[in-house]
Structure formats: C-alpha cells, structure tokens
Amino acid sequence: MKVLSARKRPPRSLWAVAAPALAVVVLALTWGRSVPPGVIVLMTAALAAAVLAAVHHAEVIAHRVGEPFGSLILAVAVTVIEVGLIVMLMVGGGEQSATLARDTVFAAVMITLNGITGICLLVASLRHRTAIFNPEGTGAALATVATLATLSLVLPNFTSSASGPEFSGAQLVFAAVAALVLYGLYVATQTRRHRDYFLPVAREGGVISEEDHAEVPSNRRALASLALLLVALGGVVGLAKGVSPTIESGVAAAGMPHAVVGVVIALLVLLPETIAAVHAARRDRVQTSLNLAIGSAMASIGLTIPAVAIASIWLDGPLLLGLGATHMVLLALTVLVGTLTIVPGRATPLQAGLHLAILAAYLELSVIP
User: Fold this and answer.
1) In this predicted structure, what is the pLDDT of residue 208?
2) What pTM does this model have?
3) Per-residue model confidence (pLDDT) at position 135
4) 294 with 74: CB under 8 angstroms?
5) C-alpha 208: how far from its chain's center?
6) Is residue 3 in a domain?
7) CA 269, CA 303: separation in Å to the nearest integer?
8) How far apart are CA 174 and CA 182, in angstroms?
9) In sequence order, what are the residues at sequence separation of 6 or more whose Cβ sits closer than 8 angstroms to the Cβ of residue 146?
10) Which domain, by its residues, includes 73?
11) Closest CA to 42 of 61, 29, 59, 53
C-alpha cells in the first residue's frame, strides 16, 4: 500500500498550559456557589479557552501516537468526562433528570453524525472539490452506531416488562453489556486488526502517513499533553455544569422544552472534537474527521448507557431511554443518509448539505416539538 507523508505539528504554546490551569482555578472558585452574571461571562471565557487548549493537546498526542489512536484518545477522553457530567446532573436533577441521559446521548449522536460530519464534508469538498475517505472503516463505524442506538434508545419503546419507554432491570443490564462489548470490538478493529481502514486516504491512492517530516513530540511532551488534555476537559465539563443552571433558567424562561438543556450540554462538550475534526478536514484528512465524529457518537452511547445503568442502582425515579416518534424518524433518516454518503467513499457539498439539513431539523424540533 502506498504511503504518503504530510505535515502536522502543533506548536509549543504557553497559552495551552495556562488555559487549563485558569479553567481549574475558575472552577474551584465558583463550584457549588451562586454567581452573578459577570462571573458567568468569566466562566464562559475560561470554558472557551479550555476547549481550544484541549484541541491543541489532542493534536500533540495524535502527532505522537498517529491515527487512529489520536482521534480515539480524544473521543474517549471527552466522552468519559461527559458521562461524569450526566451522572452528576442526574443525581441532583430530580424528576427532570429521568430523560437527561437519553436527551444528551441522542443530541451527541445527531450533532456528531450530522453536524460535525456535515461541516467537515463541506469544508473538505469546497477546498478540494470532493471529500474522500475509506468507506470500509467508516461504514463499519456507522453500522456500530446504528446498532447501539437502536438497542439502547429505540427498543425501550417496544418492550412490555416495564411501563413507559424504559427497560426492566435485566433488559438494562443486557443493553449495557452489549454496548460495552460492541464498543470494545470496534476499538479492537480500529486499532489492531484493520487499522488501515481508519487511516486518512490519499487522493493518489493509498493512505497518508501520520509520520511527517516535522519533529515528532517526545514521550515526555506527549504525556504532559495527555495530562493537560484531561485537565482541560475536566475544566470544560465542570464549567459547563457551572453554567448549566443559567442555561436551564434561560430555557425555562424562553418556554422551551427541558430536552434543550441536553442539546446545549452536548454542544458544549463536543466543541473540542468539532474544532479538531474541522482542522483535519481543512488538511484533507476527512477520514480523521469521520473517526472523530462517528467515534464520538459511538463512545457516547457505548460508555454512557453502562454508566447510567450502574448509577440507576442508587438514583431515585425511572430511567427513560426510549426516544419519541419524531426522534426515531430523525435517527432512521440519519442512518439512511449516512449510509448513502459513505458507500461511494467520496462526498460533495450536496451530501454535506443533507446532513446539515437533518441537524437543523433536529434543533428546530427540539425547540419547537
């Protein structure tokens, strides 16, 4: 297989060290306190800086370990902390928290499969006429997401062991175990047995090497970036939780459904992956962008469902996972359009527009059901 080289080297920057530290300091000073609007603005600014720092450190790590490990590390790191945020909000959320996991996970799926994917395909196709990627790896990833979403978010509507759109205890255990097994199988396929299916595709044929002419970061620097990435992501999620009361108040004041809170949380948490994916698309590495987008959707389901299944042991109230009819239609349309986009191995702005239109419909229907 032909291997081409490319340039990819995130510079060493002092701000990338200072931003995570600032986010942690602001988080420590505001955690559990009622803060005025001016402090909310400061928290939002610190959150944005932490997002940019997280992207920087993720690129350093990706440059050191290569693809697809780099995108996998960022997707898993973001999702693990997202799961922690969901569980924390569910613990103190009362009755409204019964659907928080479902709303946030489905929002993550729609944002990644339609929003991040659509933007990246649009950026790459406008710059290079078409966006090219490997349909074998991308198709396998989409099939995994479709299976996980159906087992976890659709089937609860059609079971009869429990009333309402929820699983019984045994069914929830099965869904959690199936999610972990399928996600683990995907990771093994992506990183070991068929790693070449998930490497960026060269237009001349073959794949693009992640080992470029620029100096590869040392192990010490990569480990430092990994630590700073976790700190930055922790700051992002902690500050997102800190501003969530303001978000909930604003949603309620505007008369919008509580499910919009899950959408906003997903948008905030997925910012690092969105920026990293768009950067990759600009460099004509659409496969890396799709690894991030679809991998994030998969990690969101594969890690969140087992986590909330365990948390439900001590949480009061039901755990509602079943999607409404409108959202099931949007999920089916997303899988159908995604399949037709992936099969040729290349996409134009038309395919990008289709995905963005589905995302726009989801956001509009979330605000106005």
Assistant:
1) 63
2) 0.80
3) 93
4) no
5) 24
6) no
7) 15
8) 12
9) 335
10) 9-367
11) 29
Q: What is the CA radius of gyration of the chain?
A: 20
Task: Report the C-alpha gap between 289 and 134 in whole angstroms.
Answer: 12
Q: Is the dihedral of CA 349, 355, 360, 361 positive or negative?
A: positive
Cβ pair 281, 123 in contact under 8 A: yes
Containing 193, the helix (H) or strand (E) segment is: none
Return the amino acid letter for 324.
G
Query: How many Cα atoms sit within 13 Å of 39 on the Cβ side?
Result: 15
Q: What CATH code is carried by the domain that includes residue 99?
A: 1.20.1420.30
Nearest-angstrom CA–CA distance, 289 and 271:
13
| CA 320 to the chain's CA centroid | 21
Structure tokens at 202: 């060269």
Alpha helices in 189-285 (DSSP H): 219-253, 259-269, 271-282
Task: Kindly state whether residue 181 falls inside one of the protein's structural domains.
Answer: yes
2 assigned to some structural domain? no
- Supply the DSSP symbol for 132: E
Examine residue 356 and state whether it is found in any structural domain, yes or no: yes
Q: What is the C-alpha to C-alpha distance for residues 140 and 175, in angstroms, rounded to an integer?
A: 20
**Rounded distance between C-alpha atoms, residue 214 and residue 191, angstroms:** 24
Which residue is listed with tokens 């080289």?
A: 5
CA distances to 115, 246, 259, 326 from 252, in Å = 25, 10, 11, 22
Can you give the length of the chain in residues? 369
CA distances from 173 to 153, 179, 300, 366 (A): 14, 10, 17, 29
What is the C-alpha to C-alpha distance for residues 279 and 145, in angstroms, rounded to an integer? 24
Question: Could you tell me the two tokens for 351?
Answer: 């395919």
* Number of domains composing the chain: 1
* pLDDT tens across the length of the chain (369 residues): 444 444 444 445 788 888 888 888 988 888 777 778 778 888 888 888 887 787 778 778 877 776 667 667 767 777 776 777 677 667 665 566 778 888 888 999 999 999 999 999 999 999 888 999 999 999 999 999 999 999 999 999 998 887 778 888 899 999 999 998 998 899 888 888 788 888 887 776 656 655 444 567 788 888 888 888 888 878 877 887 777 777 777 777 878 887 787 788 788 778 878 888 998 899 889 998 999 899 888 888 888 888 888 887 777 777 888 999 999 999 999 999 999 999 999 999 999 999 999 999 999 998 888
